[in-house]
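Supplementary Note 3. Input sequence used for the single-chain structure prediction.
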Amino acid sequence: MKHIFYGILFLITASVQAQVSFEAKISRKSLGVNERLRVDFTMNQNGDNFSPPNFNGFTVVGGPNQSVSRQWVNGKSSFNKTFTYFVQPNRTGSITIQQAEITIEGEVYKTTPITVNVTGAVKKPDSPESKARSLADENLHLVAQISNANPYVNEGILVTYKLFVSSRISVNGTQPVDNPKFADFWSQMIPQTNYVIRDEQYNGEPYKSVVLQQAVLYPQKSGKLVIEPLTLSVNVDVPTNRRDFFGNRMYRTVEKRVSAGGRSINVKELPQENKPENFTGAVGSFNFDVSTSKTSLKALESLQLEVKVSGNGNLKLFNLPGFATPPTLEVYEPEHEENVRTNASGMRGNIKDRYTIVPQAKGKFTIDPLSFSYFNPTTEQYETVSSKEFVINVTKGPEISASTDSASVAKQKVTSLGNDFRYIKLTTQLVRPFEDPFFKSAIFWGLLITPLLFLPLFMLVKKKRDARLGDVKTMRIRKADKLARKYLGEAKRNLGSQKNFYDALERALHNYLKAKLSIQTSDMSKERIQRLLKEKGADDQLVIEFISLLESCEFARYTPTSNVAMQQDYDKAVRVISSLDKQL
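The predicted structure, written as discrete structure tokens, is reproduced below.
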């Protein structure tokens, strides 16, 4: 009987554990570096918050594609849901696909990691796809153009990544695979808000060109420096020999990787001849200005002295000159202010140091002229600019003692005002808080009865809490609403990271729909969402905007987008959700 009991217990446990299945499957365990792999994540119960692995060592070239199936056999129902990805390896060797996660009925389930063996490129037959790839190779080129291949240290240069496309093919999307790190450079990316297509020549043939990325670089050391290549994954539409029913040529879409290749520049050291002693590394074309808020004031009043450099150059990469003052002028640490914008011509604007000066005594005090030196790469010479001398006239205040140097301030006599300081009492007198007996007093009975008066209130609160927890549907809606706000905040924190931002935004939108419409992720077709929102009384314009946000999340998996577009999508999501809340 003992063995039978344990056997039954084991079978019950196994059957309970077997109720939920979440596993990863791959189309093959070995492939070439130029081949693709299909990865399926399958579950037998519907779940939420699916989180795929990061696919390190692979590039996602397709997916995620979602499929759901339900079957009824002999009165029993079965459910199957699959997320499918198509990936291509980035290198050879053994690559592990890490765990995926999903939440099913409040529990987190993970898949088992899978290891794939990637060999060198395999030879493929001369298929229509290989012909299409060959045509894409011949008519698509990514080029890195450098404004100056022989700059000085800290002289700004512009790197432009330009895509050339022949009229024989067309491009319907790009995605960065490997971005340059710009080691040994101070770098600033220039946002591309508008992609302008131009007609240009490439190797003597007419092409269409578009600027994809631009970066301003300031080399930080001399010698030969390498600018790492930019690699992109491009979806190319290539014409085929087939035609449709109306006689129009049909196209085949292939994925093509293009690289700008590494570029080398020769950075020159700044000349040592005639180098000023006060040179701090400023390179460019600058103006220098020193000004004061006032030159006449009383002692212990304050004035502002501002040191300002403006122009075009490495404004963020050097220090402004300091100055010396007589000890009678008390100088505080400066407030540093930068008003610098970076565009294709480099850094432009101004930087300031604003000093607060407080004179301590009466007299006239001199602030010597300040000088600022910089290297002008256009003239290839050092240039020095000096300010004028400032005389600060302090009209009222303590006199400077004649027996000491001009930096010493005469000591003032301290006069007693009568009752400034008092003796501290050294004896204490203890006072009893209760002169009457505490037991059976009014305070005693009050403290005893008060908890009993609050007991019905506690029971009422507990009853309402139990009722709220027992309402499973309401709790689900509240949990989904909480998750929607959580993922909306996560989207805001990931502004600038396209994949993480749109993943969080999509989860926020899905959980919002669960809270407001009481539907699951598998039932979220666009047509049903539109119908349910309109039935709830939502405006047609808000429904259209909500659907466009879902489409933006889908398109972001395949096409690059700018930080400005991400900010606009986030602001739009906040506005749309807030408006729908009021209407629903």
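The two ends are 60 Å apart (CA to CA). The chain has eight helices and 30 strands.
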